[in-house]
Amino acid sequence: MKPDQPETAQRTLRRRLLTFLLLPLAALLVLSIPFDYELAVAPSRDAYDYALTDTATELATRIYLRDGRPALDLPPSVEAAIRSDMTDLEFLAVYAPDGHLLAGDADLAPDMGCASGNPCITDSTLHGHRIRKATYRKVTAAGEATVVFAETTRKREHAQSRILTAMILPNVLLVTAALGLVYFGVKRGLEPLDRLGKDISMRSATDPTPLPLAEVPAEAEPMVRAMNKLIKELQSAAAAQQRFLANAAHQLKTPLAGLQTQLELAAEELPGEYRDRMGKLSDATSRLAHLTHQILALARSGPEANVGYEKRRMDLSTLLHASASSWFDTALAANIDLGFEPELAMIEGSEWMLNELLSNLISNAIRYTPAGGTVTARSGMDSQGQAFIEVEDTGPGIPAQEHERVFDRFYRPSGSTSAGTGLGLAIVKEVAERHEATITLRSASSVGTCIRVCFKPV
């Protein structure tokens, strides 16, 4: 029996644990990115901003009064040095109190909201470039002069990108490693439950042994103990059912056999017409006894009995010999040639169940084979090393479309005139399933049927 592997999207314990652990970690990674970005941008931004304000205040110190009017002491060499950055474009503008340009780029406008004495840093665009500019207002004797110094943001962006990568990449690797460790940890942590599940799935319905507690996690131990308690209670209930069936079989068989004997004796003392009626009554009693026996045998051998049965190592050829003698008289009375071909075939199984299986195979074969036909029972080993037992007859055969249905309870082949109960092959199927054996039926629609039961190697 293989464990079932349902493909449904049910929420397993593993999926729940991984969801509760992995999703917060993934969310933490996503939420940490803005903070990492701000941490990466702030230091470099502040450093470059300080450089901008230093340059702006330095330019402001070069403003002086000449003939009572503001002027700028900015030789070309100094201006060239200020604009000498290798990465960014740099711009400057110095405005007199009346707003006219003293020096620099006329299209570099100051920040009008900047207060005197405190440099202001703002973002803007100039000539299609994004710029960062510092505006500084200085009070002179002639009034408030304004200095603006700006540069493009290339080196800022490059530095910020490098710092951001240096900060985020380790975080990503760390969270990825954490995700992997969480997944591995959950998988390893649930392995005892996986083994327990496989143990339960692989169990036969007839295995009454309790589930092992040695490797069960403490959290799952109450559940396993409850299951063991349930197994024990089911075993007790099934044992009680088996005792009832055994007692019922004995209690019913004895009076029915006695009734049949009394009817046969009474028939011998009656005149012809009454003797025929008594004979029919005796036949009906015989059929009732046979039906009762088969119903009880089916109940004891079926999985619904849900109880273990005693297995022992046995030879099918010995079983064949033991069962043969009980059917010779029946075959002889029906003018059937009953033959046996026993060969060594070792298996492990329940003796009484296998006796029922063989008896029903032989009984069915004799019942459906016409007078003058043959029935042969065999045991042996096939080419795959499996022990088998089979019964072959020269009866009317079974149509191909009925091969599966003949193993159903109370099913009888179409056109059947035999007084069977329709339970014989159902019992064979139940016993075979309890022994994890396979049944093969070969039959032509006109003549002959062979039923083989193959058992697992021991």
What does this molecule look like?
The protein is of the alpha+beta class. The chain has 3 domains: 34-160, Beta-Lactamase (2-Layer Sandwich); 212-308; 312-455, Histidine kinase-like ATPase, C-terminal domain (Heat Shock Protein 90), CATH 3.30.565. The protein is built from 9 helices and 14 strands. It has helices at residues 13-61, 76-82, 154-189, 191-202, 221-268, 272-301, 316-333, 351-368, 424-434; strands at residues 63-66, 69-72, 90-95, 101-104, 120-126, 129-140, 143-152, 312-315, 337-341, 346-349, 374-381, 387-393, 438-443, 449-455. The protein has a 5-stranded antiparallel beta sheet, with helices on one face. A hairpin with a 5-residue loop joins strand 3 and strand 4 (101-104). The radius of gyration is 49 Å and the shape is rod-shaped. Mean pLDDT is 80; it is low at 1-10.
Residues in β-strands, percent: 15-25%
Overall geometry: rod-shaped
Q: Are there runs of 5+ residues with pLDDT below 50, and where? A: 1-10
Count of helical stretches:
9
CATH topology of the largest domain: Heat Shock Protein 90
> In sequence order, what are the helices and strands, one letter per element?
HEEHEEEEEHHHHEHEEHEEHEE
EC number: 2.7.13.3
Catalytic activity: ATP + protein L-histidine = ADP + protein N-phospho-L-histidine
GO molecular function: phosphorelay sensor kinase activity
Pfam families: 2CSK_N (PF08521), HATPase_c (PF02518), HisKA (PF00512)
